[in-house]
Amino acid sequence: MMTKIHQKTLNDLEFATVLEHIAELCNTELGKENALKIIPFTKKAEMLSALKQTSEYLSSFENNNNIPNHYFDSITAEIKLLGIENTLVEISGLRKIAVISDTANTHILFYKKFKEYYSELHKVASGVEFTKEIIEKINSVIDRFGEIKDEASDELYSIRKSINAVKGKINQSFLSALNRYNSSEFLDEIRESVVENKRVLAVKAMYRRKVKGAVMGSSKTGSIVYIEPEATLQFSRELNNLEYEEKEEINKILKQLTDFLRPYISLLEDYQSFLSLIDIVAAKAKYADQMNALLPELSENRKLYLKDAYHPLLYLTNKRKREKTFPQDISLHEENRIIVISGPNAGGKSITLKTIGLLQVMLQSGMLVPVHPKSTFCLFDRILTDIGDNQSIENHLSTYSYRLKNMNYFLKKCNDKTLFLIDEFGTGSDPELGGALAETFLEEFYNRKAFGIITTHYANLKMLANELPHATNANMLFDSRTLEPVFRLVLGQAGSSFTFEVAQKNGIPYSLINRSKKKIERGKVRFDATIAKLQKERSKMEKTTTALKDNETKAREEATKLESLNERIKKKLENYQQLFDHNQRMIYLGNKINDISEKYFNDKKKRPLISEFLRIVETENSKRKKKTPKEKKVEKEVKKQITQEVEKKVAVIRKKKKAEKKKAIIKEKNKPKPVFKIGDRVRMLDGKAIGSIDNLEKNKAIVNYGLFTTNVSIEQLELVEAKK
């Protein structure tokens, strides 16, 4: 069981801002309202369920089983009306009830169908009753345009039938009057108009007394008088009566429908609560998606290991600005319960505190957190914080008085299931006296086995952390050369405040800084200087270690690649050797077959042929091993693969040779053609023999090769040596 986390802690950690972001991502007004009311869970089972629900919804963004739309309009007012006797829910309210019922049913069926993917959401949905009675009843009365159907009751059907008949009579009588008075030229050019939803005649003012009927108004100029003809008046009165009856019948139908829905009040409340929950879960999943958050491992033991932990608000702000956010690594466990962070201001100490606190509160409120998947969280009954100035003007409390009051509350609540986070511990009073009191508080928290992180500039607290076996000093890395923060937490060493270095960087004269150094104890300056020196050495060592690790990783990767490549080459060589041996055997067998074929060709004796052939077959079969179909299939595939590889390589070589030959021919063609003379030594382009030209006739040459002569086109010849 986890107790409620104090509102002050939520305020210190800016949890309300996170809730505002989640509320903005909700689709419904009720979801937005409820999102702003989120508080950390008091029961572990509820928290774990909420975390799994959010994680499952987040997974739907990447798989093919997209969760259906869950939008709905709030029916809180309609539910209140249903709880009061003799009330009537309007058509718009009934339509909202139908929509929310349909949406809830859709979700219930969806999670049931995909319960393997969304087991936790299915568990929630299975607790809500599935029924189509509400939707079917409302749809039988109201159509998709929001109108009451004619078939809603026999009486309504009859009334509307009469209304249509009367409207027909009104139109008929009006047209008759229109034609009569128009032919008498009593009407204006526009002839007719509509007043109070009734068709009226546009009568010229001078003929108003000649047209019988009810005057309904006149034009702005007074030149036209609008009159409803006497013939339509009686039908209009009848229509008014029927429309009144229709309204009464509709109210009666709506009242009956409202009465039908009264027993479903609790179910409708369940539907609204269920869809509101889904809306919040969806918003949490969207928020998690924006900052690459996930569900880390939850440990039953007291162990908190945060790797690559980002402050959610800072991460999203920097993401919008396209600026880098620095993650933090931190670890708390039984052997390292308390961490004392020191170092210069603006180095990221407070952000580190807020990151850990806010991530812990978010997780215990059912939200996913932006950390590395290997991170581990445990649960705390209380999270106590003292971050910021917190000076109280209303209560006339100074900063230190307020902090002492806060420490008193810490002492009452702090135990082995508490996480405390204190910023600038001990400040607000005399450094030595306040530091001594802060040291006592820290010892007390330590003795109670609480987990905690504090930030301080006090040397005595750094020394205490160094002495206590289960406490650790830490510092935020600071570049001593540029005096810029590195925003990286390093455990195991206290940090220097770089007081004088920062002052010098900000333009304070060196003479004043030197005078200030003389005013304090020499030992303290040396102590701070030693810490600063150690921090510089630590920073150098960190860089060297990182470089060595990178080189080691690269070397390991290269070795793995070479080993893999070596294995592949070895395997290929074995395969090629097998292919070569196989081909050599095939050539040998082919030669043998050729020999016995030739022998049979000469003597035509079948018996020796068959005998020799069988002997060859038996000899080959004696070398074979029996293989299973699976082994044969594998061997066949390997051979096929090797053959394909060889063919590909041969094809590449052939293509290359062909290209080279083509290139050589083109080069030869582009060469300037020699002018041949009798006695020149020549050879043919595709030959090796060299001869001399005995005679030239047009484009032909007689070439003498010694033993013979030949008549060749001079285009097929190349000059070897010209006659001198």
Q: What is the structural class?
A: alpha/beta
Number of helices: 21
Question: For this structure, what is the CATH class of the largest domain?
Answer: Alpha Beta
Distance between the termini: 114 Å
- Named at the architecture level, the CATH assignment of the largest domain is 3-Layer(aba) Sandwich
As residue ranges, the low-confidence spans are 391-396
Q: How many DSSP E strands?
A: 19
Approximately how much beta-strand content do the residues carry?
15-25%
Radius of gyration: 48 Å
Tell me the CATH superfamily of the largest domain. P-loop containing nucleotide triphosphate hydrolases
CATH topology of the largest domain: Rossmann fold
Q: Give the tally of structural domains.
A: 4
**Helicity level:** 40-55%
Overall geometric form: extended
Strand order in space, largest sheet? 10-11-12-8-13-14
Question: Largest beta sheet, briefly?
Answer: 6 strands, mixed
